[in-house]
Amino acid sequence: QVQVVQSGGGLVQPGGSLRLSCAASGSFFRILSMGWYRQAPGKQRELVAGFTRAGDINYADSVKDRFTVSRENAQNTVHLQMNSLKPEDTAVYYCNADIQLGPTPQGMDYWGKGSLVTVSS
Predict the structure, then answer these.
(1) What mean pLDDT do residues 107-111 have?
(2) Alpha-carbon Rg of the chain, whole angstroms?
(3) Do residues 26 and 6 touch, judged by C-beta distance below 8 A?
(4) Are 110 and 32 spatial neighbours (Cβ–Cβ below 8 Å)?
């Protein structure tokens, strides 16, 4: 059974910083990609930042130069450091892991439960 557990989030003033963390655990062959999405009220879920299957890093244009995604491969963990936060960053942030369960090269999506990030004065 695979689990994706995320932590972090909360309330912060504009210009402040927060850090989110996410760890995948359980029985699986390997992690193909891992990253962060967010969903604001009334909007669709969107990619924030993440590692692709090729090992590249993608960022949404709206968070470039403010957010940094990092990973610890040995711990199957990714982090999202969010600086210079703006009210429009307010959303529920979800960790996503694309995981290959066995030797067959096919991935399955697993999601964390979500972390609320509120940027407000």
Answers:
(1) 97
(2) 14
(3) no
(4) no
